[in-house]
Predict the structure of Bifunctional protein FolD.
Amino acid sequence: MPHSENATAHLIDGKQTAEDIKVEIAAEVAHLLAAGQKVPHLAAILVGHDGGSETYVRNKVLACERVGYASTLLRFDDDITEAELLAQVAALNENADIDGFIVQLPLPKHIDPEKVIEAIRPEKDVDGFHPMNLGRMVAGLPALLPATPSGIVELMARQGIKTSGKHCVVIGRSNIVGTPVSILLAKNLENANCTVTLCHSRTQNLPEIVRQADIIVAAIGRPEFVTADMVKPGAIVIDVGTTRVTDANKKSGYSLKGDVNFAEVAPLAARITPVPGGVGPMTIAMLLLNTLRAAKGEVYPK
Ligand SMILES: Nc1nc(=O)c2c([nH]1)NC[C@@H]1CN(c3ccc(C(=O)N[C@@H](CCC(=O)O)C(=O)O)cc3)C=[N+]21
Ligand SMILES: [Mg+2]
């Protein structure tokens, strides 16, 4: 029996929440303009021609236009050397007009992503991937927070989901999502205050542990990994996965699959994020928010 009476009423609408945030940002940009100040400027470096990366970066540029930011996209072929990429990062670091920038991941195999991320000035690291920002986040100091993890916390807060004291099981320990979100959820940020369990590929009895969760955050990157048998009825389900699978029925030639088997799990869940339209749009909204904070020198005074 479905836990929810209406099949769609319990969807966690990330797209709408992201729109709300963009409207708030646009209002701030209007104030900056009225005060004769420059608008925030976000730059993105995109290496190669990965279809998914192209989509995300295009969405980021469109989102900048929506809120009134300036944006710059720097594109390079996947034969760019690591030294040349580091020189491009250094140029953005020095460019006073750029408030923040990201280097889209993944990078080609011959480039060390850690080295590139460490080369970004923490003040301009609007992805929140630099060890300085990660360290400050862990220490509870003001930091530019990684966009997907902070987007998950913000999404639940704005949707009125009470997380304080709840048991949250995070599946996946990536540097970008699983590890940082497990830290943020345990903090007092937006009254998150969860008791957190972090599961990964070596976890024993994973289904049994996930079944204990009041809140499940699925960030494994494996389509439909979370099945009905892993979900306690009435759980909150946050699906971070966006894997592209070929789909001849779609005009684009692909469809997006989350890390949760939605058809099976949605009837059991109290609330659940759809894919698309859940966590993905929040990632972009939080990137815009970080760019505003960087432009205002909120974390690192200018
Ligand atoms: N330096 C860096 N920073 C990132 O933040 C970063 C990255 N590299 N590499 C890849 C991942 C993935 N990511 C997404 C962002 C938005 C959507 C998004 O907006 N998704 C839409 C659908 C988009 C579509 O149609 O493909 C949705 O879920 O509704 C998805 C995924 C950011 N990432
Ligand atoms: Mg995402």
The chain has two domains: 36-121, 146-282. The longest helix spans residues 14-34.
